[in-house]
Design goal:
Membrane topology: Multi-pass membrane protein
Subcellular location: Cell membrane
Keywords: Cell membrane, Membrane, Transmembrane, Transmembrane helix
GO cellular component, one term: plasma membrane
Distance between the termini: 41 Å
Order of helices and strands: HHHHHHHHHHHHHHHHHHHH
Radius of gyration: 24 Å
Shape: globular
Number of strands: 0
Pfam families: Polysacc_synt
Amino acid sequence: MSESKLLRGTFILTLGTYISRILGMIYIFPFTYLVGETGIALYQYGYGQYTIFLAISTAGLPMAVSKFVSKYNSLGDYHTGRRMLKSGLFVMTITGFLSFLLLYSLAPVLAPIQLGGDKSVYTADDVVSVIRMVSFALLIVPIMSMMRGFFQGHQSMGPTALSQVIEQIARVIFLLSSAYIVIELLDGGIKTAIGYATFAAFIGAIGGLGVMIWYWLKRKPYLDDLLATSKPQTEISTKQIYKELISYSAPFVFVGLAIPLYSLIDQYTFNRALNSIGEEEIQNLFGIVTGLVPKLVMIPVSIATAFSLTLVPTITKSFTDGDFSLLRKQIDKTFQICVLLVLPAVVGMAVLSYPMYNSFFGLNEAGGNVLRWYAPVAILFSFFSITAAILQGINKQKFAVVSLAIGLIVKLICNIPFLIWFGEIGSVLATALGYTVSIAYNFWMISRHAQYSFSFFVRRSLLMGIFAFVMAIGIVLIEWLLSFGLSVDESRGQSTVVLLIGVVVGAVIYLFLAYRSRLLEILLGSKFAFRKTSKKAVD
């Protein structure tokens, strides 16, 4: 395959992935309007366990299958890839059914643990119902993921991209329409609406699988032609096939599980800890901390990591070629782009936390406070993803797994004490501490195995920090001036006006400083150049 076609395929897959992610984030705003923060808590009780199975199916499996098929296709052996698909579909059907059966059966055990006491507005039966509704999606997702990986192994990214988008569109449409019909038209209860909302995962999976089946029928004559020209099948047993697949998928699975596993710790400790200190609004706070605020925080994370991770393939090539000088420059640029994009978003979210939360989810002082504390965690999410990807790029993926395990242990140890000492903010602090430890370990391993020094990156980050600080001052001043005529505590409309003006002012200040200093030109290319005749760039 030509390089231009490969790049086109990568772009299509990346575009599909991020369209899917954006759809998966923005639905929460109208959904919260329909069911409220308490309804979001019930939704999270049901959806939390499913995300673990989902991450395993969608993060590790397609990548492993793609790598396996691509390897044997490059050898001219199309039989082995087809054999793996045939066997894999059967195995995924069985494992999908067993996963469904396991989650469905364990629902009565998991539900009371999550509720953590008798102060909940929901019963264990309510939580059992939503867990069981979402578990049906596990019948479909593994099969769909296997087919996605097979097409990716043939360097065909369009099927996966379209499948991801259709899956998310179908899920969101069913989720929002069913919630609206139940609540607004049928005068049904929140619990019924949440049940249908979690079942939307199954509807989305059917849509995604339908796309893959359509592509299979369309491409089968071409794939059969390849099979007819195949070299003799490689001597490899079924056991060896799955051993190879697991070796490919394990690092991707563990890294992809980071956020779901952190969230899972909250699900089984949050309510119990706050119950012990007599907190009354536990369901609302749980919905805010685990469901609503993370959706806002992940927006800049997704954008920044999309830009930064495009450099990782070049990092892999430099490492393979032994060009460590170029490798260090590429790592530097990756880190700097992350800070350039995420830092201003983090600072802006923290300063504008109250009008931002009020605008998207309704007036709630606790929500604004949680967002203010949670916003800085965005940069930790970004750096964990990027450093883990770099470690995989330099063939040190085992250290990414070790760092995740260390961070999760820190989160597990600290979560309950922090929740007792600091209330709902304790969960955020424990998450931040866990990610900080993981990132520090990743930095150490990158420094050790890529001979990378952080001194230049630290200096450049300090410069961007100064820009962000000036931006924050500008936003605070504009908020103060607007407070004479507008109040973020009185209406969502006034909060939205303050938010929009604050975002524009902050963006203008930060981009102006980054542009005039030639930082944008250095990191993002000559199209952002300030002056061609400038004597020198920023240090």
